[in-house]
Amino acid sequence: MAENQQAAGNEEKNQAQFALQRIYVKDLSFESPNSPLVFQEQWKPQVSLDLNTSHSKIADNQYEVVLSLTVTTKVGEKVAYLVEIQQAGVFMVSGVEGAQLSHMLGAYCPQVLFPYAREAIDGIVNKGSFPALMLAPVNFDAIYAQALKRKQEQASGETQEEKTH
């Protein structure tokens, strides 16, 4: 019976665990370089979104994941506003390794952070006296898969270059 309890204890240790420990804004910037003249323009904005993620291990089983977004909104050729945010979170992840851990930190955690970043961007845009900006959902799994494919292609390209030299 003691062996069964010990085996059950080992299974619990090896079982995947995930917990969100903290979400916070690491950096936030808002610029409206053409105010107040931009308010006189007809509001037909062109919005571009640049997105990046990064992560770092901060302790055993604890990772900081940072979702960086830059939103540039133009009216004609004039920049109406520029918003940059680094939305971050501390996540506890254990019992997950290798590709599964990489996917969790590169796709799942940013997916958790995105609604917070979107709300912060919308709030700061409103405070700048611009119409609400509700960013469309982002498929972080697809972005992660593309990044992984790019890395593999670069690695295979470098390997072939080494063979030809």
Characterize the structure shown.
This protein is α+β, with helices and mostly antiparallel strands and 165 residues long. The chain has a single domain (17-155), classed as SecB-like (Bacterial Protein-export protein SecB). 41% of the residues lie in helices and 37% in strands. The chain contains three helices and four strands. It has helices spanning 2-14, 98-127, 140-164; strands spanning 17-31, 45-59, 62-75, 78-94. The protein has a four-stranded antiparallel sheet with strand order 1-4-3-2. A hairpin with a 2-residue loop joins strand 2 and strand 3 (62-75). It is elongated. Homotetramer, a dimer of dimers. One homotetramer interacts with 1 SecA dimer. Keywords: Chaperone, Cytoplasm, Protein transport, Translocation, Transport. It is found in: Cytoplasm. Belongs to the SecB family. Pfam families: SecB.
Percent range for helical residues? 40-55%
The biggest beta sheet reads: 4 strands, antiparallel
Mean pLDDT: 89
How large, in whole angstroms, is the Cα Rg? 21 Å
Rough shape? Answer: elongated
Structural class: alpha+beta
CATH class: Alpha Beta
Write the element-wise H/E pattern from the N-terminal end onward. HEEEEHH
Distance between the termini: 63 Å
CATH superfamily: SecB-like
Query: How are strands sequenced across the largest beta sheet?
Result: 1-4-3-2
